[in-house]
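ASSEMBLY PREDICTION REQUEST
Request ID: AP-0331
Submitted by: J.K., bench scientist
Number of chains: two
Total residues: 601
Priority: normal
Notes: Please return the full assembly, not individual chains.
Input sequences:
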Amino acid sequence: MKKVFSRPRSLRKVPFHYCPGCGHSIIHRLVAEVIDEMGLREITIGVPPAGCAVLAYFYFDFDMGESPHGRGTALATGLKRALPDRLVFTYQGDGDIAAIGTAETIHTANRGENITALFINNACYGMTGGQMAPTTLLGQNTTTSPGGREGLRDGYPIRLSEMLALTDGSAYIERTAVNSPVNIRKTKKAIAKGFKVQMDGLGFSLIEIVSPCPTNWRMSSHEACQWIEKEIIQYYPLGVIKDVTKRGQGC
Amino acid sequence: MRGNHVVAEAAIRAGCRFYFGYPITPQNETPEYMAAALSKLKDGVFIQAESELAAINMVIGGSMAGVRVMTSSSSPGISLKQEGISYLAALELPAVIVNMCRGGPGLGNIAPAQSDYFQATRGGGHGDYRNIVLAPSSCQELAELTMEAFDLADIYRIPVIILADGMLGQMMEPVEFPDHKNPKKLSPKDWALTGAKGRPGRVIRSLILDPVLEEEHNWKLMRKYERIQKKEVRYETFLLGDAKMAVVAFGTAARIAKGAVQKVREQGLKVGLLRPISLWPFPEKVLVELGKRVKLFFVFEMNMGQMVEDVRIALGRDGDIHFYGRPGGVVPTPLEISRIISSHYLRKRL
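STATUS: Completed
Returned structure:
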């Protein structure tokens, strides 16, 4: 019988530990599929963050080097400069890339480092138990913004991807989501595009992926996907933010 | 050649082609030299990072990729690098970190000091670990120890700290450099992340959630540290043969102390000098042996008394140990030190 669906070569035969309804499992699979389809497994080095996805190295079957919290893009810079012909990507949460690691992220983008950052935006700190993240929406209840986030007290949800698009070194930036089959397909295409931009040597690429966190949002998986559609995407619109391969697009 | 330039040239001769740093006085000549020299080399990479945090993490990345890599800074900047140094230790990654120490705490000043002895020799960042710490006292030694630091880092997969100070960084002395090493001819690192060509994926990580396994990892590090303590102790002795009193000092302070010992020898006092070159591993056994025939010890440091604790640990209660320190970036003269040495010596009626 013809096999039409199987585990990607770039994923180990290990069940994911992520919570039910979490987006990481989907995104891991997409990354593995893209790397397989592009034939890059043997030249890939991934950099997992501190956060839920730190254990990504148990699932991906290619080289992985763990980063201190927030420093992924700086660490990836060292890797990529030493091995310029490899595919180097970071896998970072919103607290990692947009709070503690903001400086590293902006300057890595500004240097046009030829790496790809996968920025998983779930609007909270997942691993530590659902605290407020830089991406937490106004009014959103978290364990450290009880009663809802207030802009003038807690700061406003940050639009990191738009900020990074302003740097001359960034080449490709897109925001996607994994809350529906359509958006999952678009996310896979975006990851492939980011990796291609890197392999073509065009500069820094980043895919922000809005991802459900039903456990910390205190929702069912279905509600979480709907909440992304109704709330998060309204504040964080999906689509290509910058693409240097297309003239006249982006900022 | 200026000390800060010596460090940079020695690194390149050791086969280091990757430098990541952030400006801070009194070590700026090192990144400046690296920027110029590495840009002329086909395989050279220099990045002025946005912070010391970024720089040390670029070092981690380069080290993971298996290349020789260095960063340099001075006290406040080294504090910022401590998170990364802890990771280097945990991940067992080789790297060379130069600290041209200055007066502190806080912003302090830019004058020479030895106030980072504790930070360097006790690990410095979070967790239970050690770094190899080498303390040169001349430009010639800056060259030799910097080159050696890269070898030690690779052999033991450990961060190696060169602990010098603003004086050594800024002073100019003639230097004879060892020959260049070709980075392509260094022994390959079979643990590095290079892409999983023809093999399963490789992981370099420090998160070990199971306490029993984390304990095992700690003991593994400990066994490595014990090997280093057995094999890599370095020190210099000066006129200790017939000495009744031993001065213990490192780096710039040892240089001043050497002058002071010479002065008191002219007065007929039998005083010698022990200069620890490896601050970790500390030459503890040498001190224990010395303590069997010398009863009076004098420790001089350009801080409020840090290495003196290691001297006390080595000699225990038996040692008659005196300390003199000048913290804050003050550099005393050999005459000042010689007066204190002779007053201790004469009071004891040795």
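REVIEWER COMMENTS: Chain B touches chain A through 40 residues (CB under 8 Å).
SIGN-OFF: pending second reviewer
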